[in-house]
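hi! just following up on the protien thing from before. the input was this:
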Amino acid sequence: MHAMQYELTLPADYDMGIVRDRVARRGHLLDDWDGLGLKAYLIRERGVHGSPVSQYAPFYLWNTVEGMNSFLWGGGFQGVSDDFGRPSARQWTGLAYQEGAGTHARFAVRRRHGFPAGEPLAEVARDAADEARRLAAEDGTVLAAAAVDTSRWELLHFSLREHAAAGAGDEVFEVLHLSAPGRGLLPRGRQW
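and the predicted 3d structure came back as:
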């Protein structure tokens, strides 16, 4: 499993209706993308759920590198580049994935933080996998994932939820659309 996200930070007075309309028109285009576990079309608006910015920030979980590369180099990502400029597409290696009991993803919660200094890598990875399991067990959680960017030694916790509950350091996004052609193929549990 591979995670990917790009963030398009928009002007404070940007009409987010433009992004909502874009997703309504084009969101279905990835509903059957080969190699895609899921794409959550996410936005956050300045002043809503504590967000300091307005952003369009789609989040992906890929089943295959080939599917991700096909999106990046085969035309899918070109539409974003044409409309908004070419954003940096962050990538993380998957550590864990868990399904929750929730059924309708209305919100996404993301938490990013550095690896604790001095902690053995195996323990940090195990704890991240345990956190994904804990998040998935929370009421209203649809799914949870943990991943790592080893170039920055940054942990990522991501969950889709029915409600906007979040803890300290969490960033809350609204889910506009969910394309999930390969969600059932995402490997459960630890990824090592």
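The chain has a mean pLDDT of 96.
Helices lie at 17-26, 65-73, 76-84, 121-137.
cheers
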